[in-house]
Amino acid sequence: MSIADLPPDLNEFYGSMISMDDPRHAKIRRIVSKAFTPRMLERLVESVQGIADDVADRARRKAEDGDGTIDVVSDFAALIPLEVICDMMGIAREDRAMVLQATNVILSGGDPDLYPDLNDFVTENLQAGANLSDLMNRLAAERLERPTDDLTSALVTTVVDGEQLTHQEIASFFILLCVAGNETTRTAISQGVLALSEHPEQRARWMADPSLTPTAVEEIVRWASPVSWMRRTATQDVELSGHRFRAGDKFLLFYGAANRDPEVFRDPHVFDLARDPNPHVGFGGHGPHFCLGAHLARREIGVAFRTLFDKLPDLEVSGEPDRLKASFINGLKRLPATLTGAR
Predict the structure, then answer these.
(1) What pLDDT, in 10s, does the model give residues 65-124?
(2) Are 224 and 330 spatial neighbours (Cβ–Cβ below 8 Å)?
(3) What pLDDT score does 73 carry?
(4) Fewest CB atoms within 10 Å of the CB: 13, 97, 123, 298?
């Protein structure tokens, strides 16, 4: 597998803080962290249940109005994190279809089934990034004039050590949210539904015992490992585990392998919703790049499955998953399911 550097044109939109070093990374993270106040996070966490209920109700109506089937990805898993992110940033309802379409392009990773001609993907990817960037530049300007209680307002008005985020930095952060925050939660939910279908005893166990939710969420993240890899570059000569590396050498962390390391996890290939301890690296390892939205993502995943059990308990996976053919994302394009009570 070849992991190439990001082309300069794409780096303009996707060069977010996830790929930055200090001191710039520290500056942006301090500003973003200050904007993510406990009050704002708590409000977001409380809103997740309402969003999940609405998404589940729409899925039920679609099945009842049609042939009893839904697609777990597009009708359930993709909508919950997208709605949460749009609510968080203050994205107007009329702009959300564009955000979903642009996010789907970016998350496709150039899947050859979707883009037989890679040039078409690069063109659409650039356009998707430009559309999201334009939206956030416009919204940031509006919030400077008329602040509200959304995250965009907090980002444009927060000052740390005399510095503020530029509109382009806010746009890059929003794209990071769309890709990292949206994709990881979307994939965890859809892969989790598939895993529960393949392990019905675990599904029955969780449905019967809501107190299992905290460990179940961690196991789903470990099992799904939504991001396949992350690359880093050595900044100096170093010896690691008996191997010598030079400055400029590239390192790949494969999350799926790390999350199934037999030296860390007992029975790593067993799907166990009560697994404890569970020191997975699904939200990144400890350190400056640990996921800012981990608490919110855990809440979204837990609420999504409890809502699934309450409102769509008759959901049965009815076909093979259509897996995304991309190296970076361990995603599903489609997962057919039937609501047996709606047929």
Answers:
(1) 999 999 999 999 999 999 999 998 899 999 999 999 998 898 888 899 999 998 898 899
(2) yes
(3) 97
(4) 97
Q: Verify cis geometry, omega within 30 degrees of 0, for the bond prior to 277.
A: yes
Rounded Cα distance between 30 and 24, Å, is: 10
Phi-psi category of residue 321: left, alpha or beta, with phi > 0 → left and psi -120 to 50 → alpha? beta
Q: What is the pTM of this model?
A: 0.91
CB 196, CB 206: distance < 8 Å: yes
Instruction: Tell me how far apart the alpha carbons of residues 152 and 88 are, in angstroms, rounded to a whole number.
Output: 8
Residue carrying the six token digits 């509109």: 167
The CA-based dihedral angle spanning residues 115, 119, 120, 121, taken in that order and rounded to the nearest 10 degrees: 60
Q: What is the bridge-based pairing of β-strands 243-245 and 250-254?
A: unpaired
Task: Read off the pLDDT of residues 283-315 as tens digits, 9 standing for 90 and up.
Answer: 987 777 777 778 889 999 999 999 999 999 999
Q: What is the maximal distance between C-alpha atoms in the chain?
A: 63
Per-residue confidence (pLDDT) for residue 7, from 0 to 100 = 62
DSSP code per residue over 223-255? HH-SB-EEEEE-SS-EEETTEEE-TT-EEEEEH
Note whether 35 and 154 are within 8 A (CB): yes
Amino acid code (one letter) for 95: D
pLDDT tens digits along 202-254:
999 999 999 999 999 999 999 999 999 988 889 999 998 899 999 999 988 89
| Other Cβ atoms within 10 Å of 280 Cβ, number | 22
Which tokens sit at 63? 């099945």
Question: Cβ distance 187 to 226 under 8 Å?
Answer: yes
Q: Both tokens of residue 92?
A: 């107007």
Residues ≥6 apart with Cβ < 8 Å to 64:
339, 342
∠ CA 311-59-296, nearest 5°, is 70
CA–CA separation, 300 vs 14, rounded Å? 24
What torsion, rounded to 10 degrees, do the Cα atoms 242, 243, 248, 253 define?
-80
pLDDT tens, residue by residue, 125-169? 889 989 999 999 999 999 999 999 888 998 888 887 788 888 878
Count the alpha carbons within 13 Å of 319 in the hemisphere toward its beta carbon: 16
Pairing verdict, β 336-339 and 69-71: antiparallel
